[in-house]
Amino acid sequence: MSVTEVTTEVRVQPGDSVQEALDACAPGAVLRLAEGTYEGNLVIGRPDVALVGAGAGRTVIVPGPVAPSAVPALHDAPADVISGITVHDVSGVTVEGLTVRGFSGAGVYAHTATDLRLVDVESVGNAVWGLYVRESSVVEVLRCRAEGSQYGGIALAFCSAADALIADSESTANAFGVFIDNSSRARVVRNRCHGNAAGVLLLHQTYEGELPGGVTDVLVADNDITANTLASGGDEPGVLGFAGPPMSGVGIAAIGVQRVAVVGNRVHGNEPTGPSVMGAALVLASSADWGGSDSVDNSFEWNTITGNSPFDVQLGTDPGNQRFRNNAVGASQPERIDGCEY
After folding, report:
1. Where is the Right handed beta helix domain (predicted)?
2. Within 10 A of 177 (CB to CB), how many other CB atoms are there?
């Protein structure tokens, strides 16, 4: 849904109940939130609704009174967490021009949504996830910013046919800047991922009790992925990437992926500050040994991957099943990879 296509507009001021306005609006409505701070989480359960603030940093959603939601529990989170904005089992929802800050769950949690647009949305200091989209399709995340969450800043999870675009966004101080978790048909373009443990993570992994997964037909292009130096993983509750494997200094990791194209990215200054299961800025590996799949039929072209530590590129799978062309690389493991210029 485009904001310009709707005819009903509801204006909301600080002190008004945004949730009451959401519950009362008809399909096709635009709720315009004036500049200010609004307390309490929001649940969007009506189709074809736009929630539009005055701009990130100007319209701010913070914890307060709790609006109940029947959305399934947030992944990797305690059962009682609260997400700032929840979109569940609806189509045609737009969230635009606001900041979501300080919630115990996700900044935005979308589950089984179709035709979802997150535009100029900022997630800051939401404990578990930033912008988390699960089992959804036809998704756009445009000009957003995600900072300071325990797992992914911007994440697609179990979106088997996502038809998703994540573009012109920034992700920092998360375990994973952009996380494509068992999701396919996505484009990750023109983003800036810095100061995370991993800038972009594409992962096919089987989870007990979860849906079958896979990562196929994904484009990662024209991104700046720099200075991802945080350390994540460990057994101490509350740490970055809690219960996951140790990870640090990773730019792009593609694990168990198929038909993924990594094109024209600039990957610099990524180095570990703690233990890491991956040893380079660009890592391609298989997940077949732990329930995923081999990485095959992937393309790496016109990337500049230099000034990283300990390696710029690390291949943990057969390079003969991949295509490398015109990549500028400093040091790799193996020492030479056809299609890389040293």
Report:
1. 83-257
2. 34
What radius of gyration, in Å, describes the C-alpha atoms of the chain? 20
Of 340, 339, 296, residue with least CA distance to 318:
296
Q: How many CA atoms lie within 13 A of 223 on its CB side?
A: 27
Residue 197 contacts residue 228 (beta carbons within 8 Å): yes
Class of domain 11-74+83-341: mainly beta
Task: Yes or no: say if 95 and 121 are a contact pair by the CB < 8 Å rule.
Answer: yes
Average confidence score pLDDT of the chain = 95
Question: 210 — phi, psi (to 5°)?
Answer: -100, 170
Provide the pairing of β-strand 250-255 with 280-285.
parallel
Instruction: Single out the residue of 85, 114, 111, 109 nearest to residue 97, CA to CA.
Output: 85
DSSP bridge partners of 318: none
Distance CA 103, CA 242 (A): 18
Phi, psi of 192 (to 5 degrees): -120, 115
- Distance (Å, whole) CA 181 – CA 166: 14
The single residue listed with the structure tokens 């460990």 is 234
Residue pLDDT, tens place only, 293-308: 999 999 999 999 999 9
| pLDDT at residue number 236 | 85
pTM beyond cutoff 0.85: yes
Q: What does the DSSP assignment read for 81-100? A: ---SEEEES-BS-EEEEEEE
Distance CA 46, CA 207 (A): 31
* pLDDT digit string, tens, across residues 111-152: 999 999 999 999 999 999 999 999 999 999 999 999 999 999
Residue 141: closest CA among 113, 174, 101, 173: 113
Per domain, the residue ranges of the chain are: 11-74+83-341
161, pLDDT greater than 70 = yes
How many angstroms separate the CA atoms of 215 and 68, rounded? 33
179 neighbors 211 (Cβ within 8 angstroms) = no
Q: Are 248 and 287 in contact (CB under 8 A)?
A: no
Question: What pLDDT does 146 receive?
Answer: 98
